[in-house]
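Why do we care about 3D structure at all? Because function follows from shape, and shape follows, mostly, from sequence. That is the central idea of this module. The next example makes it concrete: a single protein chain, its amino acid sequence, and then its structure expressed as tokens.
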Amino acid sequence: MKILNLYAGIGGNRKHWDGDKHNITAVEINQEIAEEYRKNFPKDNVVVGDAHEYLKNNYRDFDFIWCSPPCPTHSSIRKAGVENGQYDAKYPDMKLWQEILFLDQYFRGDYVVENVKPFYDEKVNWEMLVPQESGQHYLWSNYAIPDTEIASMNHNNGNCSKWQQWLGIQVKDSWRTVEKRKVLRNCVHPKIGEKILKARNTKQTKLKVGSQ
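And the structure:
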């Protein structure tokens, strides 16, 4: 097989792979660590670079992909450190989830993504990933969102004047570096925003996260 070993480190996962049988490419961003990997596995092709970008640009060239993206922001140990004041809170590094989704949807070979058991595994309600639907929108919320039908605009044909009229919002005519029509198209209609906020104060609409 042609194997891609991402975030390779010094190659612990690689040690018992047969380098004579497989064509292995390892990607490690740290030059010194990459040199140690190269000493341990001289037959492998070692790339010093960004594994996240390398995956996106080269995934089609391989039969099997191993991926071990950075784990600290996902670990329970670091979370405990934040709670006791040892560390500052950080956003979880979403490269982990980006790569899982990317491999699942685009890669036609076999893959393994390795990481720690995250601090949120037992605390996050995974049903939050299930959206509610309102008109043409997906909405993620911990309360019920009413379905709001707004007469739609033709996204392909509506000019700036029509978009402004539809939204009831005016933008600068003097914009030169901003694609005005795109800015208008990206707006959520004010009536939708209004209904969503009002629903928050209607207690009977509250429900479990992710429920329809």
